Amino acid sequence: MSAHFKTPAIGGASLVEDHQLDARIAVIGVGGAGSNIIDSLIDRGISDAVQTIAINTDVQALNRSRAGRRYKLGADMTCGRGTGSDPDKGRELALFHRDQIGELLGGFDLVFVVAGMGGGTGSGAAPIIAGTLRETGALVVSVGTAPFGFEGKRRGRVARQAHEALLDCSDAVVVLRNDQLLRVANQQTRFRDAMRLVDNHVSEILQGVVGILARPGSVNVDFADLRAILEDQGEAMFAVGHGAGDHRIHDALVQVLNVPLLQDRYLDAAQAVMVFIECREEPGLKELSDMVEQIQAEAHPDVNLIWGWCVHDDLPQDVRLTLLATGFPASGGHATSGWGDRDGSWRVQDRASHSKGHGGHGSPDLFRPLD
Questions:
Q1: In this structure, are 182 and 281 located in the same domain?
Q2: DSSP strand pairing (319-326 vs 234-243)
């Protein structure tokens, strides 16, 4: 059933939008990196029917955010100056305000929690926020960015611990590893440009998922399909590709399978895959058949493949292809990777041992909207 969603503005006035979506969706950026991704998403023109929310302990950084809703986390405890890269402090603040977070941010069907891993607010608070909203009944997908190896072992260790906590608290977790950018960087690549590439990639995959739900397709994919692919799945792969010309769908799929930030993730281990194609013009039967056959050849032999397509006149290229993959093995195979500290590695956790969140209590005067 479609839902009418209202988007309140900051400061008392309210802006009512009458978009129809298959689900109520929020994207929550936690900490500085998460807030930056929210701004990138706004720049790319995310649907007004999607709530953009920024949560930070650093009020100065929060003031720069253009999210639709902005919340100071523990401002009276930190004086609005952040956590000093201490993830324990970020976690404690989120736990302290857990009840209030659930009250203020509940009511969504699909929530993306976006954060940079390795620092204080994102690493500590994001898993608590994810678990709290999951307990409200939301389908929660967490998206984290891992630090470069040269940022040090401590930051890599904090990032790995945050990743493990997100797996405990989320239905699905997508990780983008900054070290993968070193494979495509050259002497002229600036650090800020590399970070912008990460922000843009996260924004694009979020736009792609929203597009699945926002545009009814000739072969339709709905929220129930999305939940079937993502619910309680753990490690996930999200990617978006574009194509043009005679081989538009094939080229988009090849691009998806070769995203630099996902080069440690292989489709042959995925047991569940969703593909949604947006085209300027109706695709040919042979194009669709070839795409499905290629995915079936690349993925696990018993893959649960859900696919659909729609016509979208305003695409920048002929085709946008969004791919979601889950069902990676709990250990072994291709589902392992280094995590920033280079000397260490992690394996995907056993989902059967994961809990649905953590305890905690809120305080109405410390977790509040930005004035």
A1: no
A2: antiparallel
